[in-house]
Design brief:
Distance between the termini: 7 Å
CATH architecture of the largest domain: 3-Layer(aba) Sandwich
Number of strands: 6
Strand order of the largest sheet: 3-2-1-4-5-6
Helix content: 40-55%
Largest sheet: 6 strands, parallel
Oligomer: single chain
Order of helices and strands: EHHHHHEHEHEHEEH
Number of domains: 2
């Protein structure tokens, strides 16, 4: 039986366009002022950027330019994700935007939570960014639905070991966990790790996929 569900966010519970067209441009625009105003507080993250770029002499302005370039390239790099999370926190608090969630995803998550299935998130966005998105939706604060969150600090989403690590951390046999994602490569990695998997393709272009959470029946998947 399925004891836990781990879900991706972008393209799965939430619109890709919200991330691409709202969150990313907001972070790109706000990074220069945020870094300069909070340089001491985020010094460790800036040093991580210098380390990744293998250039400890990068100035603050050069680090900012690097961060913006990483956003343009859609890089899944931990210090960038951490900074984006901090910037989005300010944006959510100011009411500049709300986190998007599909109605069918919300209904599915609520249904599974009520059935006693533990729910987790695994996204390339930082854990704080994940919590912010689900805490500030038009439907209210959805964080009570979830038992935990995982990001790239757990491991790359395309590596099977990352999913085994999640299973160990939530103390559930890997074959009792269902992973939901819109990314076939992530589905392959989770399948290799031993998880049950469902590909969510909201454009309905992929074989062996579902279009939305309404089409997911846990009893059938667990049987």
């Amino acid at each position: 039986m399925i004891r836990a569900i781990v879900t991706d966010i972008e393209g799965t519970t939430s619109s890709i366009s919200f991330v691409k067209d709202v969150l990313f441009p907001y972070a790109w625009k706000e990074i220069p002022a945020f870094v300069r105003e909070n340089e001491k507080q985020v010094a460790g993250l800036l040093d991580e950027v210098r380390s990744i770029e293998k250039n400890p002499k990068l100035s603050t302005d050069e680090v900012i330019t690097t961060l913006q370039r990483w956003i343009d390239e859609d890089q899944k790099i931990t210090p960038l994700k951490a900074l984006q999370g901090l910037i989005w926190q300010a944006g959510y608090a100011a009411g500049d935007f709300k986190g998007h969630i599909y109605d069918d995803a919300l209904e599915g998550l609520q249904r599974w939570h009520a059935a006693g299935i533990k729910l987790y998130v695994y996204s390339s966005g930082s854990v704080p960014a994940q919590k912010l998105l689900f805490a500030h939706t038009p439907k209210g604060d959805l964080t009570p639905l979830f038992s935990g969150y995982f990001d790239t600090s757990t491991g790359p989403k395309l590596e099977a070991e990352s999913y085994r690590k999640i299973a160990r951390q939530i103390n559930a046999p890997v074959n009792t966990i269902l992973f939901l994602s819109d990314n076939p490569q992530e589905i392959s990695a989770a399948t290799e790790a031993g998880m049950e998997t469902i590909l969510v393709d909201r454009e309905n272009n992929s074989p062996n996929s579902v279009k939305n959470f309404d089409q997911i029946t846990i009893q059938e998947k667990a049987a």
